[in-house]
Amino acid sequence: MWLCPALLLVILSGYSTAENLLTGPGAARGRERGSLTVQCRYEPRWETHRKWWCRGADFRSCRILVMTTGSEQEVRRDRVSIRDRHKNHTFTVTMEELRRDDADTYWCGIERTGIDLSVPVEVTIDPGYSTSSNPLTGPGAARGRERGSLTVQCRYEPGLERHRKWWCRGAHWRSCRILVMTTGSEQEVKKDRVSIRDSHKNHTFTVTMEELRRDDADTYWCGMERTGIDPGVRVEVTIAPAPGRTTMAASVAFTPSTSMKTTSSVTRSLLGSTYFLLLVLLELPLILSMLGVVLWVNRPWRGSAGRPGRRDDENR
Q: Who has greater pLDDT, 10 or 306?
């Protein structure tokens, strides 16, 4: 059977403006970091059919981001939500935390037997306004303790999630030395004593420095890789001495000295006592011998009858 080109176009495309089974706004506009809402209308009898929101220039190969369950319950996935209103014959799609790269062709669609109904919606994203030309913000300063760790968290604007973030050391931003850098994902990257992790949902990346040393004190930079000049924010890092370091050293030096003095005094005392005792033991027999000789010489002389006698020199 021969089909006219117009009817053939309706069958292949999956949507028809003639029947008005499904209509949409045709275009929607939002601002970066903001949100946008798209409302599509359908004819009665399609209430319990599942509705969806699809992204891609070609309807036949677009990627469905979110879909209803056939009820009026809201369904949310990542930054996109959809809700059907059976009474009003409309379903509403909301996109939040808009990014510049969200600009694309989208489709409001209804699931049915055969070819789904759909209408295109061209979404454009306007640049967001910022109070600063630098999309990065940081703490400005961070303090850690020797042998401890410190954590620095820097924030970036939405739309920059996939850009690589880095941590750099040096007083001058243009010549600083990059210590660690992300891969564009949320996976942690660690190099030596420094690690970095990006959180796309929170739009922050966190740097951790461990086993801090006194010479780690310096100027550092939170930075982000992008076309043109990389943005960066300064972070002054200071390192405090480890607690009790000086006191402990003095105590260690003092204790052995006191112990040595005490030991020396006790040793000398023991040696003195031993020497004195040895001297007494050696001289005592000599003293006793001399005393015995003196007593023997001076003893009284007696005669055979027991009377005191005279010596020979006295008889002469």
A: 306
Per-residue tokens: 115? 């070819």
Which helix (H) or strand (E) segment holds residue 273: the answer is helix 245-297
Q: How much of the chain exceeds pLDDT 70, in percent?
A: 72
pTM score, whole prediction: 0.41
Please state, in angstroms and rounded to a whole number, the distance separating the CA atoms of residues 26 and 204: 35
Number of Cα atoms under 13 Å in the Cβ half of residue 52: 17
Positive or negative, the Cα torsion across 10, 13, 19, 24? negative
DSSP string, 105-150: EEEEEE--SSSPEEEEEEEEEEPPP-SSS-SEE--SEEEEETTS-E
3-state secondary structure of 36: strand
Structure tokens belonging to residue 52:
């969806």
Q: Are strands 80-85 and 90-95 parallel, antiparallel or unpaired?
A: antiparallel
Higher-pLDDT residue of 106 and 261 is 106
CA dihedral 274, 275, 278, 284 (to 10 degrees): -130
Confidence at residue 162, expressed as pLDDT on a 0 to 100 scale: 92
Q: Tell me the mean pLDDT in the region 49-68.
A: 95
